[in-house]
Structure formats: C-alpha cells, structure tokens
Amino acid sequence: MNRKLYHGAAYYPELWDADVIEQDIKIMKETGINVVRIGEFAWSKMEPEEGQINIGFFTDMISQLYENGIETVMCTPTPTPPIWFSYDHPERMFVDGQGTVMGHGSRQHACTNNAYFREKAAVITEHIARAVGHLPGVIGWQLDNEFKAHVAECMCQTCKTLWHGWLEERYGTIGQLNEAWGTHIWSEYYHRFEQVPQPAPAPFLHHSSLRTMYQLFSMEKIAEFADEQAAIIRKYSDAPITHNSSVAFHVDNERLFKNLDFASFDTYASSTNTPAYLINCDLWRNFKKGRAFWIMETSPSFSASLESYAAPHPNGYLKAEAVAAYALGAEAFCYWLWRQQRTGCEQPHGSVISAWGKPTVGYTNVLEVEQARKEIESVLLATIPAQAELAITYSDRSKAYLKTEPHQKLNHRGLVTAFYERFLTLGIHRDLIPEGADLDGYKLLFTPFIHYLSPDYINRAQQFVEKGGIWVVGPLTGGRTEHHTIHTDAALGQLEQLAGVETLYTYPMDGTNSIGRAFGESAPLGMWSAVFETKEAAAVGIIEEGLAPGKAFITEQKYGKGKIVMLGSMPMGEEGDMLLKKLIGHYAGEAQLSLRTNVTQGTIVAPRVGDGYTVWVIVNMDGHGGSVTISQEGYDLLKQQPLFPGKLEIGKYEYRLIQFEDTRRY
C-alpha cells in the first residue's frame, strides 16, 4: 500500500447504473474518499449461472475508480452464494443449533465447510484474483464479509464428519478423549469418534468439553477457509489481504489473522459508549504487530436495519472517532456505506449519500473527517504508536469457555470492555494483546476472564515476572483445563504454586453479602470467585464479611525480580470500581509506568513516537470537553505555537497534536 491515511467507504456499483456510478465518483472526489471496498456480496453479478463467470464489470469499475484517484480493496463474494448454489440443495446450507436448515437469502446461509461450497468459492476467488490482481488500483483484499456474524457453529452433516476428524487429530484415540473429558459421567462414554455428537438440541445442558471443543473446532475451520482463500489470491496478487472481523463474532481473531497480512474490524459502537469503540483500536493494533490496522466499517451517522435503528452521532463525534483511530494505529477509516441501499434488509442504514444522491445527515461530518485527515496525515505518517507498558490479555477462545459456562449470563465483550474502561479513565496507555503475543516491552500484565491458561502462556508470563514484570491474574482466570474440565490437583492448577497460594474455595459471591477490603477501599464482591489461603504469598485484599471472613481475595507473591498478584473476586458497584482503580493505580505505580496522563474522563491521549520526539494526539470523545496536564514545554502542531507546562483545555470533540522533544520524558 502507498504511504497515506485512507478515508473510504463500502460501495456496491453492481446495484446502480452507469449514470449513478459516475455521479458517485464525482461526489467521492469532492468528499475526499480515496479508497472503496467492492465485490463482497456480488457473486450473482459475477456468476449469474453456474460456470458462467465474468469479472469484466469489476475490472472496468476498478480502472474507472483509479483513473479518478480512488483505490480499491477487492473482496471475495463468498458470504452470499447465488440461488443456483442454494436452490434444492439443503445439504449445502447452514444448520443452526436447533436443527433449522437455512434457506436462500440474506447472507451466510451456506455452510462454509461444505465441500461443494469450498470448491465453488475457490473457483470464483481464482477468477477474481486472476482478473483484477494485476490492476494498479487494487491496494488490498478483503476475504468474505464478517465471518460468523449472523451464525455460530453449524450442525450439518458435513460439519459432523469434519468434527470427528478434528477430534481424532486432537486426541489421537477415543480412549484419550474419554479420559480428558471424563465421559463416564451421565453415561457419555464413547467407543468411536463417530459416536461423539454435535451439541445440538438436548433435554438439558451439554457436557462442557463437548460444547467448548465444538466452538473451537468451528473457529479453526473458518480460519482454514480464510487461509485457503488467501492462498489462491496470493498466486495472482501481491496486495495485502485482510478480513473485516469483530470481537462480537464467533471467531478466534488471533487464529484468523495469523496467516493474513493486516487486521481490520467493523464497529458500530454508539457515541455514548466510546470504550466499546476504543477497545477495538487497542486490540486490533496488536493482531498484526507493527502493521497498521483498518477500520473497514463504521457508520457515518447511525446503524439500522428493517427492524431497528440506533441514534445518529452528534455533530463532531465522527471526526473525533476518526482522529482517535488514526492516532491509535489505524491506516484507514471507512464507512458502511457510501450510497444508501434502495432495496434489501438494510435500506434505513446510515450512509454518506442518500439513495436519491443527496447528502445525508452525516455528510458534513464526513467532510470534517477529511479535513482532519489532511491536517494530521503528515504528523502521523512520521510517527508510530508508542509501545504501551501495560498489557491486558484478550482471548476469543476464552469467549468460547464463557459461552459454555456463562454463570449468571455473563457477556464476554461486556466483561472485557468494562474492565478495559478503567484503564482508559485512568489515562494509562494500554495494549490489548492476544494470548500468543510477545510480552517484551511491557511492565504490567493483566490476565482477566481467561478460564484456561495454557502451559505456554503461563511459562511466558512466568519469564515476564522473573525479569521484573508485575502479573495480575484474574478474576475468572485459570480455573479450567484445556478440555473445559476442573483441575484435580488444585483449584487453579499450577498457577497456585507459582502464586504462592492455596485456593480454599471457589463459589459465586453474588448474594452472599461478601465485602472485601484492599488499598484502603471496601467494596461488595461478586461473580464466581476464588478464596485464597496464603502460603509464600502475602494477603493484600481481605474478605471482611460473607462466607469466608478473614480469607484473602487478593494476594501478592514476589517472584524473581517481579511479582504475581492474584485477583480472586470481582469488586462490584461504585465502591468496586473505586477499589479496582486503586488496584490498577497501585501496581502502575510499582511498575513505574511512564505512559500515563491525568487526562479527564471522556478525553484520551494517544502517544506516538518519532525520531527523537513524542507527539500526543489528544481527542475529546464525549462531547463535554476535557483537559490534560502538560508537564513539560511542547509545541502545538496545529496552532503552530509553543505550549507551556500547565493544564491544557480541550473543547467539545476537539483534537490537538502536541510535540515534545526527548522520548524519555512524558
């Protein structure tokens, strides 16, 4: 890709005639759109009858766009197989958890594991790649669209056969599966892999191992499909390949992006929930470390379908979103969609241009984004996001465990986002990192809500602590094996010995009137919890009231040059929020984090590093304005004037770029 910041939109030229396309391109140029994404739902346009493939419309479209200074991300159209694929072929279709076979229409109606689907997907992808892969306007590829957004695990016969093969490859023998899962419970013992069912409808709950492993199987298979598609494209194109994913989908993003070239995501977080927006930036920055991510979809105003709609963004918010994303490592900020759809199920969805070709309520905000992009581009291209000193491990595989065992209907995305928000409000620059990420460069590591910690992860975290890092483990972490069973050597397995504790009890603290005290704060305790007896460790948080008074729910163990901290229970409510912030602040101080500001809530600081200098990109996200204390002399790059130490006020949705010399000071 060329070195620039991209400002783009999803475009569906197959839905419009030549005059409309010409009008669209003219307005795109006026608006500052420099990249579009095309082709993702256009299989029937490319192959209206089986075997009759013609990509000419799209090669012409790419050339027309390029001649007008607009580059293209080309998509594979596999989320929407045509009617010739679906009609009278239920064996090719997705089957949900209740056994319902999907019909034609909407999208994601086919089973992506079906052999015929894979064959036809490979054929159409090869034709597209051969036709457009050499075109100079194609700067990137997107595979499919939002894998597993509307569907989860397929229960068709194809998947059942593949499931048995996956189990055999994983466990080797049926005896080893029986042993690992403990299948003598409820007479669930199996004699052959073919006997292991899918977690389809049952009178009560399925075995935890069965349900969790089936989710992991499904995640692996969709990633394998992405790998196949990418391999085909690479035969004809050097342009980098991605997929537009989300933490909300039924995928393992770490595995999905493993063999892709850059990471991208879609988000429709509301303006009142900026943590849900920013968490994506701090996570996607780390799926392909050192490579800028893309926001492939966000609404210029509001999201909607035939059945629902969200509140439009306030004027000014879109600009704040875009600047924050670019500052946190995005190369592109793209809308869904350019021209409002006149048909289909998403007709009401917010767009840049209406179906009748006029500006929408979000149009002026899109113009503001383009003005901001031009204003900040040179500074951001000369810098990179600063390496965070604090990391929070994120795991889509743990999402599978929580789906199997949700306790009181806990939601993984909600849990993680609420936990993340506390670091945001404390002004600490942070990374969310996948389980397999390198821990070099970090001083403080948090590992919340990860039921199963692999030996590899524990070993890397142990080495991190030995070198001087502080590792905060929990809550809801380490209490399950890789097969989603309970440890039999200790409640939290090998983690307890490392942490110098013995877990006395695990139980739900909700409703027990348990109160914990730590760091000078008392708060109610909740969620599924672990109660500790200290061995080598020291008790830091004590249960004052409840079923286990006097026992520890937070412990510290010195280990090598660092420290392991166990957080066994979740502090709840406003008091709990204060206690957690005190905990984070305490260990941030011990770890001597330097990338921390006293920015007011609702405003962020994104630090970026250049050659011998640092730039703070400061953005107000809540529309109320804010402030941040400047501790050394700097230079305001937008106002082009010196900035002296003191409180810097930031206006409603305002952004500022402040340069400081010497990256050793913040």
UniProtKB/TrEMBL annotation:
GO cellular component: beta-galactosidase complex
Domain Glycoside hydrolase family 42 N-terminal: 11-375
EC number of this enzyme: 3.2.1.23
Positions annotated to bind substrate: R107, N145
Highest taxon of source: Bacteria
InterPro entries: Beta_galactosidase_Trimer, Class_I_gatase-like, GH, Glyco_hydro_42, Glyco_hydro_42_N
Top-rank EC class of the record's enzyme: hydrolase
Active-site residues, record numbering mapped to chain: E146, E297
Residue intervals of the Beta-galactosidase trimerisation domain: 388-593
One annotated GO molecular function: metal ion binding
UniProt keyword annotations, A-Z: Glycosidase, Hydrolase, Metal-binding, Zinc
A Gene Ontology BP annotation from the UniProt entry: carbohydrate metabolic process
Keyword Cell wall biogenesis/degradation: no
Record's catalysed reaction(s): Hydrolysis of terminal non-reducing beta-D-galactose residues in beta-D-galactosides
Binding of Zn(2+), residues: C111, C154, C156, C159
Family: Belongs to the glycosyl hydrolase 42 family.
The protein, known as: Beta-galactosidase
Organism: Paenibacillus sedimenti
